[in-house]
């Protein structure tokens, strides 16, 4: 299922919700795959379009345990607002078009929380660890991931990126990307969100 766009979108909402004072609870990727008709389910989609749709519809994004991932798109299930979940009230999108803009991207990450970003991940299947410094394009994004942090320790600063291929891949599901050279086109676009207060069952 080519649902990376949905995973990245939901991961950002989860993180933003925690930063806003909520609990860390997995939200439903399947709900976004099934219900975001402006995207194309498992055939692909776009995080900016997904955030715009979530913002416009005020969709109540429910817990993963309520609407679990099935690895295929299906009919959209409807829930009342009494079902525990999260809504977003706004989002932002910015293309950090040059390597100099990665300084600005650091500021967004610190000030707004994790960002959904688009990257070239053609060579990522073979990633086993370390910092990716090349072997990917800086002009052909084809995969959505979540930028969660960075490290400036040592001689090789790097971004910390959460993927959607499971904890068995990479570094417990994460990959490190060299900073300040737009490696893998990582500064193509960054999107944070601002959630409404979440409503979880006690």
TrEMBL record:
Native source organism of the sequence: Petromyzon marinus (Sea lamprey)
SMART domains given in the database record: Pept_C1 (SM00645)
Membrane-spanning segments: none
Family note: Belongs to the peptidase C1 family.
Domain of life, per lineage: Eukaryota
Signal sequence annotation: 1-15
GO biological process, one term: proteolysis
Single GO MF descriptor: cysteine-type peptidase activity
Protein name, per record: Cathepsin O
Domain Peptidase C1A papain C-terminal as annotated: residue spans: 1-196
InterPro entries, alphabetized: Papain-like_cys_pep_sf, Pept_asp_AS, Peptidase_C1A, Peptidase_C1A_C, Peptidase_C1A_papain-like
Keywords for the protein's UniProt record, in alphabetical order: Signal
PROSITE patterns: THIOL_PROTEASE_ASN
